[in-house]
Amino acid sequence: MTPESKLEELLIDAEADDEAVQHSHPQVLRPWLLLLGLVLVALNLRPALSSLSPLLSEVSGSLGLSAARAGLLTTLPVLCLGLFAPLAPILARRFGAERVVLGILLTLAAGIVLRSAFGEAGLFAGSLVAGASIGIIGVLLPGIVKRDFASQAGAMTGVYTMALCLGAALAAGATVPLSHYFGDSWNIGLGFWMVPALVAALFWLPQVGQKHGAHQVAYRVKGLLRDPLAWQVTLYMGLQSSLAYIVFGWVPSMLISRGLSATEAGLALSGSIIVQLLSALTAPWLATRGKDQRLAIVVVMLLTLGGLFGCLYAPLDGLWGWAILLGLGQGGTFSLALTLIVLRSRDSHVAANLSGMAQGIGYTLASLGPLAVGVLHDWTGGWGATGWVFGVIGVGAIITGCGAGRALYVGVTSEKA
């Protein structure tokens, strides 16, 4: 079996699971409890990624990590987002989505403990486990939202996205103060984030007993991997995500090298992420008012690049302005990437498969950005050349985004398998 046919088979499996979701008729006894559980789970999908970067210099110094190895450390979780995503529908069909979410929350907590308490080997192994856990849960939650809140899917997706961004911001801003509070221990600062994962698991536990239908109608979508527009959507998703994970992984270290304390650098990252809430909600709405999304994509990518270059090169007196600019840009780039998946698809079956392709391949591609920044820093001994990485990725995202932003559909259709 070729890699393309294997990937298409996985995408078909994901669509079959999505159909199972849409044809179920659940009886949600306490929807407020499900809503609370979803929010708490979403809050845990970014702290493992954003909590490390403000402490990366301290962790590297403590364990003797080179910049290249630190870059690999920031790359592993992002790589796992793409590599482990195809496991989600397989596990959900075997055990049920609710049980899988509960089990993976516990796995996420274990990964966080592993990376904070067992030296360099535990740091890398725990990062891998945490990234894999986030990749699996991230695929399952939208389907649960679509199934149990079908009439409020848009609003619930907004709540889910806001919770995700809030979790990232909290971890970026609070990890360093927590480590200082507990005796300047980076281990405790990183390990603390197992607590919200366990709390989410506790509140999610009642969902395991809910009964959901199992009627499945599989649809096959052929030729997606040969469609140029599908690849443009995928590459835009991957390139904008690459910039996002460079920010998560390296921007605090860049700011610390420019004279900020770890706490100040973490707060700057946290503030930038919080600002993303505004553009994440408004950018798709504004982009769908025009004839296509090309202008919106160019605008948000230019905001992102402007914020990144400002954080890297501009005087620190204006840092918060650049951080806000960066947040506005990145909130828009991410939400538009998700919106393009829907707008470029003729029906929900194509959309589900395009989503699997864009996330599976896109996040794998995105993992190369943080690694490249770490290798370049190790090679040059500074951060000055990093601007070239920003520029190349940003220009690539604009080019592919302008292709993906045209008012067209991917040239494939769905049919019953």
Task: Provide structural commentary.
Helix 14 packs antiparallel against helix 15. This protein has 18 helices and two strands. Helices cover 77% and strands 1% of the residues. By secondary structure, the protein is mainly alpha-helical. The chain starts with a helix and ends with a strand. It is globular, with a radius of gyration of 20 Å. It has a two-stranded antiparallel ribbon with strand order 1-2. The protein has one domain (3-207, 223-409): Up-down Bundle (Growth Hormone, Chain: A). The chain has helices at 3-22, 31-43, 47-50, 56-63, 67-83, 87-95, 97-117, 119-148, 153-181, 186-191, 194-204, 228-257, 262-287, 294-313, 319-343, 348-366, 368-380, 386-404; strands spanning 219-221, 414-416.
Q: What count of helical segments does DSSP give?
A: 18
Q: Describe the biggest sheet?
A: 2 strands, antiparallel
Q: Report the order of strands and helices.
A: HHHHHHHHHHHEHHHHHHHE
Q: What does the overall shape look like? A: globular
Q: Can you tell me the number of structural domains? A: 1
Radius of gyration: 20 Å
Instruction: Output mean pLDDT.
Output: 80
Q: In CATH, what is the homologous superfamily? A: MFS general substrate transporter like domains
Task: Please name the defining characteristics of this protein.
417 residues, mainly alpha, Growth Hormone, Chain: A, 2 strands, 77% helix
